[in-house]
Design a protein that fits this description.
mainly alpha, globular, Glutathione S-transferase Yfyf (Class Pi), Chain A, domain 2, 5 helices
Length: 83
């Protein structure tokens, strides 16, 4: 399972080599889904996969996604709730 996720991240990194977003220069539904996926990976402790030296384009992409107003409005949870 982790291997499949890592392969998908590698694919996304390659896509970002020639695009601002995953499918071009405009934020699309694909990016909405990937924003949530990356946030979940971050929440589950796989932040090294998206913030590390192996994926600098993906790290930059994720940071840009987090800086979007829609990310704030959506209140995407990247930390566990306190009980």
């Amino acid at each position: 399972m982790e291997q499949n996720a890592f392969e998908a991240l590698t694919f996304a990194e390659k896509q970002l080599d020639s695009n601002t977003f995953l499918l071009g220069d405009s934020y699309s539904l694909t990016d909405v889904i990937w924003t949530v996926v990356l946030s979940r990976l971050d929440l589950l402790g796989f932040s090294d996969w998206i913030n590390g030296n192996d994926s600098p384009l993906l790290a930059s992409y994720y940071q840009r996604a987090q800086n979007r107003e829609s990310f704030t409005v959506a209140q995407i949870q990247n930390k566990w709730w306190d009980k």
